[in-house]
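Exercise 7.
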Amino acid sequence: MGIKMPKGSDGKWNSITSSEACQTTKGRPVADFEIEYEWHTGPWQDIFDRQIAVLKRDIRRARAQDKLVVYLSCPITSRGGWLFWHEC
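Solution. The predicted structure, written as tokens, is:
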């Protein structure tokens, strides 16, 4: 894919420490959108950044081929999604 993954304490992100998994930051990911969030950094940020890069590449390819691009988000339960909570 040509996207290098950053390394964790094991040098590969094959395993991560609890402190690496619990790293967070607060801020406004979209500067002119006036809501502040807290999100995970470390390996989670790396995973999401890589997914975003893959999606952007796929969208560029689809547009270059004059194809329709559709984003579909569907809940996995009748409740509208699933919540996982881990106390760091």
